[in-house]
Amino acid sequence: MLDTFDHKILQALMKNARVRWADLAVEIGLSAPATAERVNRLVERGVIKGYTAFIDTESVGCECTAFVSVTLDRPQHREAFLEIVKNLSEIQECHHTAGDGDYLLKIRCKNTKDLDRVISFEIKNLPGIVRTKTTIVMDTIKETMEVPLQPTHFHE
Question: What is the dotted CATH code of the domain comprising 2-52?
Answer without folding.
Answer: 1.10.10.10
